[in-house]
Design a protein that fits this description.
Aliphatic_acid_kinase_CS, Nucleotidyltransferase, domain 5, kinase, metal-binding, binds adenosine-5'-diphosphate, alpha/beta, 2 domains, globular, 392 residues, magnesium, cytoplasm, 15 helices, 14 strands
């Protein structure tokens, strides 16, 4: 057996999964939460159940040390699990990385250098890499970048209409994000439909949300830009907004750049519109007659429809439309609302298939022509594990 330990290190959390890339089986998974806070938590799950530690976790190194202890205590023993590599999720790979790379000092330095364009993500990703390389010295560590799938976007899609020199000096372009998920899901759709030449739109609707257009396996458009702020309405992020709103707030509300950054990233989207960032809560409010919640659902679906239409135009047609991530996989009502009115593009959702409580990969469009509409659960960890071993 050969396995890969996949690590996703955030500012106050570390998520991990031990996987067998070939079969896709997960042997263990877990999370370290509230790193650096007064109360911490480590939860480690295997086939036998979940083991929990609730002491404070002062820093990432201590968090990972506890995870390694839990592997020894609750299993499976990492020494016996045939770990061939550690795969790290890294959000921003800039213009440099179009695929996975074995991490050395130079790669660490490059991830650090890219921090100004991913200030919320690359620094904690790098912290996770550094502590993991220190604690797991016998295996190679590989970085899998969230931007890599979008590295070769056509220039017309990747370039902002901004002064060329300013853009070049400050590396301003559309990098995209969630690329590992879009790559995995579009690949699955291609396999499921047995076609390589598909024109696909993938909707990754989680707390963060993004759309991509993929032609014959190659990404040609995506909704996230320089950072994951652009595009669809998200749990707490605005998605698309006129940049002049920023000037307006700076000049007239006296807000600083940092305050506006926080407003757009953490206090907007569904949360800003309704007070709730979880779409299930927004539905609950709307079902109870809250007009703001009903409007938020309309805004959310309207934005998705605009992107699907735009991407169909960019691809000269569309063969498959796929929903994934927390909302996309679970929320039949939002899927129906988002596809509503797109019949002119051949997009139809079969109500019975859409409402069926299946958890796996499934087609939800009616039989007989038109666009194939699917639900495909994403599996970013498996994609990271597979890309990691493909490199070694
Ligand atoms: P992340 O982007 O953090 O990885 P997920 O992909 O797990 O998140 O998506 C989380 C979101 O999915 C939640 O905030 C919630 O809005 C939504 N979600 C999960 N289950 C459902 C459901 N049954 N119905 C509607 N929304 C759901």
């Amino acid at each position: 057996m050969s396995t890969v330990l996949v690590i996703n290190s955030g500012s106050s959390s570390i998520k991990y999964k031990l996987l067998e890339p070939e079969s896709g089986d997960a042997l263990a998974s877990g999370i370290v939460e509230r790193i650096g806070e007064d109360s911490g938590r480590v939860a480690h799950t295997t086939g036998d159940g979940t083991t929990e530690l609730t002491d404070p976790v002062p820093d990432h190194a201590e968090g990972l040390r506890r995870v390694l202890e839990l592997f020894e205590r609750a299993g499976p023993s990492l020494a016996e699990a045939g770990v061939v590599a550690v795969g790290h999720r890294v959000v921003q790979g800039g213009q440099r990385y179009d695929g996975p790379v074995v991490i050395d000092r130079a790669v660490e330095a490059e991830i650090d250098r890219l921090s100004p364009v991913a200030p919320l993500h690359n620094p904690p990703n790098l912290t996770g890499i550094r502590v993991a390389r220190e604690l797991l010295r016998d295996v190679p560590h590989v970085a899998v970048f969230d931007t890599a799938f979008f590295h070769d976007l056509p220039a017309a899609a990747a370039t902002y209409a901004l002064d060329r020199e300013v853009a070049a000096t400050y590396r301003v372009r559309r990098y995209g994000a969630h690329g590992t998920s879009h790559q995995y899901v579009s690949g699955r759709v291609s396999d499921l439909l047995g076609r390589e030449d598909l024109r696909q739109v993938v909707l990754h609707l989680g707390n963060g949300a993004s759309a991509s257009a993929v032609v014959a396996g190659r990404a040609v458009e995506t909704s996230m830009g320089l950072t994951p702020l652009e595009g669809l309405v998200m749990g707490t992020r605005t998605g698309d907004i006129d940049p002049a709103v920023t000037f307006h707030l700076a000049r007239n509300a006296g807000m600083s750049v940092d305050e506006i950054d926080e407003l757009y990233n953490k206090r907007s989207g569904l949360k800003g519109l309704t007070g709730q960032n979880d779409l299930r809560e927004v539905w609950r409010l709307a079902d109870d007659g809250d007009p703001q919640a009903a409007l938020a659902l309309e805004i959310y679906a309207h934005r998705i429809r605009k992107y699907v239409g735009a991407y169909a135009a960019a691809m000269g047609g569309i063969d498959a439309l796929t929903f994934t991530a927390g909302v996309g996989e679970n929320d039949a009502r939002m899927r129906a609302l988002a596809a509503d009115g797109l019949a002119f593009l051949g997009i139809r959702v079969d109500p019975g298939r859409n409402a069926s409580r299946g958890r796996g990969e499934r087609v939800i469009s009616p039989d007989g022509g038109g666009v194939t509409v699917l639900v495909v659960p994403t599996n970013e960890e498996l994609e990271i594990a597979r890309q990691t071993v493909s490199l070694l």
